[in-house]
């Protein structure tokens, strides 16, 4: 019986990891395509960046709705429904003929994509034994982090071999497959409890009165802001002097960034041994070092190395902050996690909006140092969490 359940948990975790990987790739698909959008629709790159920002904003906003809906209608049902809608909307983007249409469908795509994360995180806390939760969360967050590279690499590759629209057709097909697997394979567990709007607002008030959760949300805001901010401008820097890299060479550099992400699955092990807050601080420290390094080095191999260090830091930070928020949220963890992801992607919205103008007005060094200061502020805030959070998490 135990062996059977262990196999079941492995399959569930693998499925949730795959869904996380493909769903959140939608955030990053447009990042390497901005120049193509600029050419195809005759718009400046700064305007093309709205294809990324609108997804991030609507994605974050969707969490505020879909967190409570997953409480009311059930985790599996909402995940399956979201994947079906996501498949339709993502495929539709490939048929758009104007930038306004693309932005509209990217916004809808982001909004519907928000069905997955809060439902999946709450599902894990409800279905898994307590000792298996950190590992499951680590693999789901590994999917979230790995998507930051996969989304860019897949879109860049498909654009080079065919057309930018191929990226959306490809992910549309993946969402169909994921929806089928969720409907067939995911056990329908977890309680459904309806929440009225008044009760939802009361829960939000309770959450925002928790100082530790507020600190966690402030840290969260810096994560995708700096990640998307860095990757949005890195490609153009490497295309220019003195590097003059081709699109294919830049694609390889994006792929190399995956190396830094392999720390993420071990975050659960580190958290059990050292505590999630210690892992969080270590991840933020690595991220700061990586961004500062990107700002001050000029040799290509060092730039690649520093980007790996930055990605490694982010890959440790995501699962640890998710464990902190999930633990502090208690029975309200679905809404607490929804608010976490809303803030995460509000930050993502600001990433390109900050880094592109900074690059125009200053240079790559200053842009990276500003981004390092942003995530450095998150590191400073993490020291306010230390013992209180660990005791609250283990105390339930």
From TrEMBL:
Which Pfam family, just one, is annotated for this protein?
A: MFS_1
Topology relative to the lipid bilayer, per the entry, is: Multi-pass membrane protein
Query: Which keywords, in A-to-Z order, does the entry hold?
Result: Cell membrane, Membrane, Transmembrane, Transmembrane helix, Transport
UniProt-listed CDD domains? MFS_NepI_like
Where are the membrane-spanning stretches? 7-28, 48-66, 78-97, 103-125, 137-155, 167-186, 213-231, 251-271, 278-297, 303-327, 339-358, 364-385
Cellular component per GO, a single term: plasma membrane
In terms of one coarse class, where is the protein primarily found? membrane
The Major facilitator superfamily (MFS) profile domain extends over 6-390
Q: What is this protein called?
A: MFS transporter
Q: What is the originating organism of this protein? A: Oceanobacillus piezotolerans
């Amino acid at each position: 019986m135990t062996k059977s359940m262990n196999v079941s948990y492995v399959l569930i975790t693998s499925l949730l990891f795959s869904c996380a990987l493909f769903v959140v790739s939608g955030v990053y698909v447009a990042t390497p395509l901005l120049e193509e959008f600029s050419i195809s629709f005759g718009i400046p790159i700064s305007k093309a960046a709205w294809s990324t920002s609108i997804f991030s904003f609507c994605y974050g906003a969707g969490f505020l709705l879909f967190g409570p809906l997953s409480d009311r209608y059930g985790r599996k049902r909402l995940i399956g429904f979201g994947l079906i809608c996501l498949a339709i909307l993502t495929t539709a983007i490939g048929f758009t003929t104007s930038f306004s249409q693309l932005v509209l469908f990217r916004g809808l795509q982001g909004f519907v994509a928000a069905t997955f994360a809060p439902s999946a995180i709450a599902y894990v806390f409800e279905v898994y034994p307590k000792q298996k939760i950190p590992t499951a969360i680590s693999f789901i967050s590994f999917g979230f982090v790995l998507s930051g590279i996969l989304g860019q690499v897949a879109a860049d590759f498909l654009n080079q071999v065919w057309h930018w629209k191929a990226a959306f057709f490809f992910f549309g097909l993946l969402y169909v497959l994921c929806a089928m697997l969720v409907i067939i394979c995911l056990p329908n567990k977890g309680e459904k409890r309806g929440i009225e709007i008044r009760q939802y607002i009361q829960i939000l008030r309770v959450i925002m009165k928790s100082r530790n959760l507020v600190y966690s949300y402030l840290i969260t805001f810096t994560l995708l802001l700096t990640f998307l901010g860095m990757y949005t401008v890195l490609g153009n820097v490497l295309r220019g002097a003195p590097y003059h890299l081709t699109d294919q060479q830049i694609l390889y550099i994006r792929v190399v960034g995956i190396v830094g992400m392999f720390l993420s699955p071990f975050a659960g092990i580190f958290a059990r041994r050292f505590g999630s807050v210690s892992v969080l601080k270590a991840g933020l420290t690595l991220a700061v070092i990586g961004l500062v390094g990107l700002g001050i080095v000029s040799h290509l191999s060092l730039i690649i190395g520093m980007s790996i260090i930055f990605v490694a830091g982010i890959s440790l930070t995501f699962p640890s902050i998710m464990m902190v928020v999930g633990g502090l949220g208690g029975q309200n963890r679905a809404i607490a996690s929804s608010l976490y992801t809303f803030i995460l992607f509000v930050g993502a919205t600001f990433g390109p909006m900050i880094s592109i103008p900074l690059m125009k007005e200053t240079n790559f060094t200053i842009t990276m140092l500003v981004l390092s200061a942003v995530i450095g502020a998150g590191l400073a805030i993490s020291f306010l969490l230390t013992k209180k959070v660990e005791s609250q998490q283990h105390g339930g």
